[in-house]
Amino acid sequence: MIISFNLKFPIVTSLLKLESEYLNRLAVDSFTAIMRYMGDLPLRVHQREVECVYTILVEGKLSKQHTYFLPGGVQIALQTSASTVVEDIIRCISHKMGIEDEAEFREFSLYCIVEGDQYTMPLERDEYILDLVAELEKNENIYYLVFCRSVWNFPLRLDSELYIDIIFHQIVPDYLEGYLLILPSHHMKIIQETQEELLRIAALLHRASGSNEAPTETDMLSLLPKSALETFSRNSESSMKYVSQLWNGMIPLNTTEAKAQCLEILQKWPLFGSCFFGIKMLEENNEEEAILAINKMGANVLDIESHETLWRFSFSAVHAPSNVVELQGTTYADVVFGDETIQKTIRLQVDHVIFSSPF
């Protein structure tokens, strides 16, 4: 009671020198909870004594359920303690997907996406989750810890519903954006075989969404890659007839089976499993836009319209930055691509890339 009488405000920092902000906050919260339970500090509005006990017992174990996001916006709650590092979370989700191979496990990453930030990077595997969370919450950031695949050397495994769901929702946005579709540059037309494949994928996407009715012509506009919409519009009548024929074979499929069949088709496409970046090429003072696709084949520079490969460099032909420059407050790094026969310097900025002339 003497403490209660003399203490106007609870402590705001730990009485012990602790290494991290998280542990400091935990110590303060636990001490405050004890004071409230003992009656040395008033309970908060609508707070009950049992909530103080919960704080002491659960938070005191340095463990809590924390939410992580999977592609598609699915949330998963995992037990996270003060000793939990990024690698622990990646390994836990990977095991839920049926991944046991150490090399395959390395193909997945955890990202921290902070609302308002333009860029994000994979978190270091030895970073402590709750230290990161404490810092973000201290700064009142809105953030999401997102698990996804970042390297694509291993083939797809279609024996796990969770695996199928994660890969499906990660691939589909790039597919619908048109990044995976390659069009012959000399006529920019989609051949009949590819058209039929696109219509089959559209029907599978529609079934994967849980729909029991065949897609309408309006539905098809959101089920096809952007670069295929013009071709569909020109041949909408015959295309819808073909989709109707396909639909009878879709009805027996559940949503997971539809997603799996969709992935089976797409994994055969050359640009499947690529990370795409918008770039700008500067050749003899002429600036042209292009796409940089990073995949297991190496670094690929694609035509902005057709997505045909203009240049391809193996990872062994990607050299360390040869120069770092500061221009108008922005840092650029010049990275050399190529070998003795052909070399190009790519000037990398955080948000875009510029090609300089060949050596």
UniProtKB/TrEMBL annotation:
<feature type="domain" description="MyTH4">
    <location>
        <begin position="6"/>
        <end position="224"/>
    </location>
</feature>
<dbReference type="GO" id="GO:0005737">
    <property type="term" value="C:cytoplasm"/>
</dbReference>
<dbReference type="GO" id="GO:0003779">
    <property type="term" value="F:actin binding"/>
</dbReference>
<dbReference type="InterPro" id="IPR019749">
    <property type="entry name" value="Band_41_domain"/>
</dbReference>
<dbReference type="InterPro" id="IPR019748">
    <property type="entry name" value="FERM_central"/>
</dbReference>
<comment type="similarity">
    <text>Belongs to the TRAFAC class myosin-kinesin ATPase superfamily. Myosin family.</text>
</comment>
<dbReference type="InterPro" id="IPR000857">
    <property type="entry name" value="MyTH4_dom"/>
</dbReference>
<protein>
    <submittedName>
        <fullName>Uncharacterized protein</fullName>
    </submittedName>
</protein>
<keyword id="KW-0677">Repeat</keyword>
<dbReference type="InterPro" id="IPR035963">
    <property type="entry name" value="FERM_2"/>
</dbReference>
<dbReference type="GO" id="GO:0009887">
    <property type="term" value="P:animal organ morphogenesis"/>
</dbReference>
<dbReference type="InterPro" id="IPR051567">
    <property type="entry name" value="Unconventional_Myosin_ATPase"/>
</dbReference>
<keyword id="KW-0963">Cytoplasm</keyword>
<keyword id="KW-0009">Actin-binding</keyword>
<dbReference type="GO" id="GO:0071944">
    <property type="term" value="C:cell periphery"/>
</dbReference>
<dbReference type="GO" id="GO:0048731">
    <property type="term" value="P:system development"/>
</dbReference>
<dbReference type="InterPro" id="IPR000299">
    <property type="entry name" value="FERM_domain"/>
</dbReference>
<feature type="domain" description="FERM">
    <location>
        <begin position="63"/>
        <end position="359"/>
    </location>
</feature>
<dbReference type="GO" id="GO:0005856">
    <property type="term" value="C:cytoskeleton"/>
</dbReference>
